[in-house]
Write a structure and sequence with these properties.
196 residues, two-stranded antiparallel ribbon, 9 helices, 70% helix, 2% strand
């Protein structure tokens, strides 16, 4: 009888999940009731916090409504629910972008980008974005290291000159007058000797 009760419970749970999903779709697509659709999708998560379909629906709805802080929370839940490293990296970078461009929160954007950098290694997005944010804030301690990583990733025959100069500026000690500006010397091919 215990097995039968468990089977019945699982069947009821599956039916409830299906009903809640259909209700959420009806509210969003037919009735265009976005707050109701959000509440319905939240109810789906009450049954299964890792319901990817419900999380993606909330992601879409919160973005549509401009609920950026709530969107970050949903993305964090999606990050926890998936085991796909590529998907996790995209989510982590997107969280940083939302903090930077939608919430105008440089501090949390830096934290999010650094989280992506520590978990997944350097990429164009996780290096250039925090470097840009550090440059515009008082939190400059990690900027030289980020610029150094950008230089290491740049093609050997096409290293951006502005990265060299910015690294030189920030690699010097800070004085009362600001950063000592001194261009760092970089190895470059010597010109061939003039013919005799």
């Amino acid at each position: 009888s215990g097995v039968w009760r468990q089977s019945t419970h699982d069947t009821d749970r599956h039916e409830i999940r299906g009903l809640r999903r259909r209700r959420a779709v009806l509210l969003e697509d037919v009735l265009e009731d976005v707050p109701g659709a959000i509440a319905a999708q939240r109810q789906r998560l009450d049954l299964d916090p890792d319901d990817t379909d419900a999380l993606r629906a909330l992601e879409r709805l919160y973005e549509r409504e401009g609920e950026w802080q709530k969107l970050v929370g949903v993305l964090q839940s999606r990050d926890s629910a998936t085991t796909d490293a590529g998907e996790q990296e995209k989510i982590a970078q997107r969280i940083g972008e939302i903090y930077e461009t939608k919430l105008d929160d440089a501090d949390d954007a830096i934290v999010a980008y650094n989280d992506a950098l520590s978990r997944f290694g350097p990429s164009e997005g996780t290096l250039t974005a925090p470097a840009r944010l550090y440059a515009g804030s008082e939190q400059c301690d990690d900027l030289p290291e980020l610029l150094e990583m950008q230089l290491e990733r740049a093609p050997a025959d096409d290293e951006p000159a502005d990265l060299h100069f910015r690294h030189a500026q920030l690699s010097r000690p800070r004085t009362d007058d600001g950063y000592v500006l001194a261009r760092r010397e970089h190895a470059a091919p010597s010109p061939p000797p003039a013919p005799p």
